[in-house]
Each structure stands twice: as C-alpha cells, then as structure tokens.
Amino acid sequence: MAANYWASTQRRHWLFSREKLADIREALWEKDKVAHSQFPLPDQRLLNIYFNQQLIKLGKRMSTRQQAIATAQVYLKRFYTKNEIRQTSPYLVLTTAFYLACKMEECPQHIRFVVGEARGLWPEFITPDVAKLGECEFALISEMSSQLIVHHPYRTLSELETELSLATEEVALAWSVINDHYLTDLPLLHPPHVIAIMAIFLAVVFKPAHPVTYPVTAQSALSGSLMSEGSGLQMLAALSDKTGSGPPPKIQKLIGWLAESEVDIKAVIECTQELVSLYEVWEQYSEKNCKELLGRMVKSKNLDK
Amino acid sequence: MGAIESVESRRPGGYTSKVRVRDRYHIVGFISSGTYGRVYKAVGKNGKKGEFAIKKFKPDKEGETIQYTGLSQSAIREMALCTELSHANVVQLEEIILEDKCIFMVFEYTEHDLLQIIHHHTQPQRHAIPASMVRSILFQLLNGLLYLHTNWVLHRDLKPANILVTSSGAIRIGDLGLARLFYKPLNSLFSGDKVVVTIWYRAPELLMGSRHYTPAVDMWAVGCIFAELLSLRPIFKGEEAKMDSKKTVPFQRNQMTKIVEILGLPRKESWPGLASMPEYSQLQSLAAHRQPSQYHRGSNLEGWYQSCLKNGGYSSTSSAGTPGTDGFDLLSRMLEYDPTKRITAEQALEHPYFTIGGPISGNCFEGIEGKYPHRRVTQDDNDIRTGSLPGTKRSGLPDDSLMRASKRLKE
C-alpha cells in the first residue's frame, strides 16, 4: 500500500528476478520471431531513453511533474512484459501511459488535451480519435491487473535527506540518478529504497566538482567519473566484505548508516553497475535512429491504424 | 498471454476482455445507482461460489453508440485502491473486469449497511440499537479506518450508507470512489475535488473552506455516525447550499448552523487556525445573527447526549445497555472543532470506551435477537428509490474535475 511497500502489489506482482525477466522476454520473442528479424530495434535501454524523451516532451507542454513521468515509464515497462512491442503502436501506448499516470498521480489531464498534444508531437502516429486512447487505457489497466499504484525511490530520498544530512547538490544529483534508473530494468528488479540508496551513494561519492543544478539526467554529471575511476565501485564493494581499509571521512556517515541498516549492499552494487552500463550504452544513443526504426515498424505493420 | 492473442486476432491496440462478466456471474437483480453507475447483486457461475455485488461504471455516451472516452479519475482511484487494499474491515474486491467499454468491479456481497440498520430501528417505532452492537460497529469501523489512514488513504465520504455490514456482523468500509492517497500529493488536496463528504458528515474545517485537510475529516464523520447510531437521526442534518451560477462553492451556512446549535460557536482560543480559514468572515456574520444567549453558550453536546440516552432507553439496567460516560467522552473528542486536536483512529481504539467494559465482538450482531431485513434487490433496472436522498447520494465532485471544468465552460 501507499505506506507499506512490503504488502504492495508492486512487490508481490511486479518485482522480478533477472532470470525471470529474461524468460518472459524470451517467451515474447518466441511468439514472434519473424517480426523480430524483420524489424530490428535498438537496445531496450536506448529505446527507453527515446521513450523517456518523448514523455518529457509531452509532459513539458502540460507542465507535468516528474513523478507522473516516472509512473508512466513504469507502466510502459509493465505493459511490455506482457506484450511484444512489435505488436503495438509505441506512441499510442506511451501517450496512454502518460494519460493514466497523470490521473493516478493526481495531476489529471483531459483526454482531448492529451490527444491534441500528442498529435502535435507525433502527427503521423496519433489519430485525432480519443476513443483510441480510451481503448488503449483499457488494455493497459487490464494488463496491469488494475495494479496502478507505484512506489518510487523519490520518497525514500526525501526521507533520508535529513537523516544523512545530504547537501542540496547531493540531493539534486541523487534525484537525477533516480530519474535515470527508469531507463533501465531496475524498477522491475529492485525495491525503491535500494534504488534510492544507490542514488544517494553515487551522489555522495561522485559529487562532481562543478555544481549541478537539477539536471534532467545525471548522465553528463556522472558518466565520466564513474567510468574512468571505478574507485567508488571498489569502495562500495569493500562495504560488503567489511575488511576494507576504510573510506574517506566525508562518506563515513553514509557508510555507518548503511552498515547499520539492513539494506542489501549487494543489490546496491548491482544497481550501480546497471547505471554504469547505462551510461556506457548511452554513448550510442541516436534519437534519429530510434525514431526511424520505430516509424518503419509502425508504418509497415499498420500498427497505428 | 491472452492479450497478445486478442491483439493478433483483432487490430493492434484493440482491446478484448479475456474474461466475460456473463460467463462468471449470474445477475440476480439491481441494488442501487449513483452518479458513477449501478450496483447489481450476482451469484457466481461455472463453479464459482458465493454472492457478489457488481459495481458497473457507466460509460459516457456520444449519440447512440457508447464510446471509449477515458475513465474518470474517481473510477481509477477506486480500482487502484481496492486492488491494493486488504483488511477485514475494508470491503473486499473479488476482481475487476473491463469489458465492452465498461468497468465491472466485483465485490463480496454484503447483506446490510448502517443506513439500512438505522432505518430498521425506526420501524415500526423507534427502538435503540443495543449499546454493545454500537460499540462493536464503531470498533470495527475505526479499525478499518486506522488501516486506511496508516496507508495514507483518506476515505473522504464516510456515511452510514457506505458502511457495509455482512450477514455475520462484520463491518466493511465501502465505496472508495472519493478516497485518495494523501502522502505528499502533487497538487493540493483542494485542487482536485472542491467538495468532499456528504454534507451532514462534513467536518467543520471543510465547511470553513480549509485547503489542507487531513485524516481528521474522516474522524469527524465517524463521530457523526456514532451519534446517529445512538439517536437514529443524523446529528447535524443541514440543508446543502447548491453551487451558484458562477459555480463557486458557497459557504454551507445552514450546515454550520446545525453544528453550532449543538457544539456552540467555534472559538479562536480553542481552535487557533480558525481565524485564517477562508470562510471566517462568514462564520462571524453567522455569529452576529444569533441571539446573545446562544452566542455565549458553550457546547451543549453533553445535553444532547444525555437526552439521546434517555430517549433511546439506554441505561445500565435496560436491555439496550448504555454507552455511558466513556461513550460521551469519545464522541466529544471526535466532534472536536480543531482538526489538530481531534482524536485519531489509533487513539480512539485505545479509548476507555473500548478498553474498559469487556470484550468486543467481531460480530456486531452477537447476542442480538431479531433479524435485520435483507438488502432490497429489485428486478427493475430503473429504480431510483434512494438515488436522490442526501444520505445516500454523494454530493461531492466524484469525477475528473477537469472534465467538469470543461463542461462548465460550455455552460
């Protein structure tokens, strides 16, 4: 429930092991091998970056808050564990996820307005008929078994802000790391508090020399130091075998807190690695490429009709 | 993966339900209707056992054909919350079926509700609800409410019609159509729905135009329900002032007057936030019109309570028993003007009214002679028998307020 992640549908129904998630995707692929070879798509994370950018564009025009965008991204992930992307119109699905997430996060937008805005952005993929969105909403809710309440790491971050005496800059950077984790499978693999702690850890350890003022993504701020140094990762790894030579004093407090808490340190490390590999793959990102491949798929298969 | 099959068999993005209501349930009759749609009684089919209440949300019609127009925010909230919640004193959801552009929420069937039980005690003449039954009802209701509040859910529409009672005497809080999460909402709670809670059960801070309301609004409603269980009448039975032509929310003068008549005027000294309430000047004008004797009079809740016990025949020697002085103390703490001082669900459950005086049954009918009539189920789909009574119909803005805003513009 809202206060109780442990009893939530998110934990009971939407938390997968890596192996399970791989099996699910394998099964989807088995069902439609032909489409897979006919319509190659970029790495899922690159697609996620593209979808996220589209959602931000859509949200910006309606001044939507980040949390609704985050919820929409989680809805997309959940939906695509049950449906092969090549059988859907991704633009319709992401617009619907956005529309539904806004209602759930208490910042509702009228359906006509959302369709109008989406048409403004992707006129060739969104029809003016609001019934399409309404129908897709049924599909989305049904595939998610009406489990629409999403727990986000942002809350843990704000709860720990004071406890760990985080600087404004660190909170800003951790917030951006959380934004970035929606581009990976992490929301389906780990509970939100583990993600939040990973984000705080990265922010504290890799606090960039130049102040960041709430960047949309932490990629630019972090990727350099993450990939070149790796010292933070070693430090984090040292936490799991408590024989390490001891961290610098500035993160003493964080480490003390982590050691006392019952947080799964291994999971935190795994999340960090996932972020590192996201920032690596990000180098290959091309908006144009994603747009073209998706466009070709949607048009050839008449998915927008 | 039925969805994929349906996607393949139809057009991409098309939606076909995997489950059909008629394959799983046999509709026995019609129970009630509201702004959201209709509720039907049903029994399970094809091996599915039990009785159910199916709430069908009506889709919007455009001309003759039913269209997908996007679900109301109220429906979305109720679906999401009911799916997430699980507690012995909150109505149990069986499943949700999305079919033919409609939503069917299938709940366990409850034979009674508090409105019907209170009504039964006024027929053929008034006879009090036994004190032990009131105590069990209230305890279970608070237990369910504590669960909701602990999970950051405000119910916002507690009233006798929404408090369901199973045939084995278990209380279930129902109708979460106005409920919502209150953990750091993105928009203030005020901006979503301008009016909440049926007028008779509406907390004074809401009547005073508060924008930052809290779980205390639900506790006020519980206080009103407690009083109504004892007196068999709504304690503050005001008349609702309708929205004016500009669609602004008016000050509910009559409702506030009903409260003041029993509790006296709220005072800045005991309710420090009062003077900063949006409707404070309205309250002052209300005070100016009152007789000086009434103006200076404090709360008369105790007088109300004593005459209620007397009229109901509640006493330690009567068969009805008595809620006693502890009952009064608890009631007065629920009907506290200042929401920050009002008793919480957690504190109420620890109150002497419950902790002293023996065990409380989880079956509110335990030891009660006589039976309550079954819920009325009709074959007439157009029955709007209770549809327009203030106690049974929600008076808030249950649906997507933006939808209303656009309607308003058209008007």
TrEMBL record, chain A:
Primary localisation category? nucleus
The record's Gene Ontology cellular component field reads: nucleus
Location of the protein in the cell: Nucleus
Q: What would you give as a GO molecular function for this chain, any one? A: cyclin-dependent protein serine/threonine kinase regulator activity
- Gene3D superfamilies xref list: Cyclin-like
Top-rank lineage group of the source organism: Eukaryota
Domain Cyclin-like per the UniProt entry, residue ranges: 53-142
Give the record's GO biological process terms.
regulation of transcription by RNA polymerase II
Under Pfam families, the record lists:
Cyclin_N
| The entry's keywords | Activator, Cyclin, Nucleus, Repressor, Transcription, Transcription regulation
Task: State what this protein does.
Answer: Component of the SRB8-11 complex. The SRB8-11 complex is a regulatory module of the Mediator complex which is itself involved in regulation of basal and activated RNA polymerase II-dependent transcription. The SRB8-11 complex may be involved in the transcriptional repression of a subset of genes regulated by Mediator. It may inhibit the association of the Mediator complex with RNA polymerase II to form the holoenzyme complex. The SRB8-11 complex phosphorylates the C-terminal domain (CTD) of the largest subunit of RNA polymerase II.
The Swiss-Prot or TrEMBL record describes its family as follows: Belongs to the cyclin family. Cyclin C subfamily.
The annotated subunit structure for this chain is: Component of the SRB8-11 complex, a regulatory module of the Mediator complex.
Descriptive protein name: RNA polymerase II holoenzyme cyclin-like subunit
What organism does the record attribute this protein to?
Penicillium bovifimosum
The organism's lineage is: Eukaryota, Fungi, Dikarya, Ascomycota, Pezizomycotina
UniProtKB/TrEMBL annotation, chain B:
Q: Which residues form the Protein kinase domain?
A: 25-354
Q: What is its EC number?
A: 2.7.11.22, 2.7.11.23
One Pfam family this sequence matches: Pkinase
Which co-factor is required? Answer: Mg(2+)
Q: Can you state which reaction this protein catalyses? A: L-threonyl-[protein] + ATP = O-phospho-L-threonyl-[protein] + ADP + H(+); [DNA-directed RNA polymerase] + ATP = phospho-[DNA-directed RNA polymerase] + ADP + H(+); L-seryl-[protein] + ATP = O-phospho-L-seryl-[protein] + ADP + H(+)
Q: Where in the cell is it found?
A: Nucleus
Q: Which family does it belong to?
A: Belongs to the protein kinase superfamily. CMGC Ser/Thr protein kinase family. CDC2/CDKX subfamily.
Q: How does it assemble?
A: Component of the SRB8-11 complex, a regulatory module of the Mediator complex.
Q: Under what name is this protein listed?
A: Serine/threonine-protein kinase SSN3
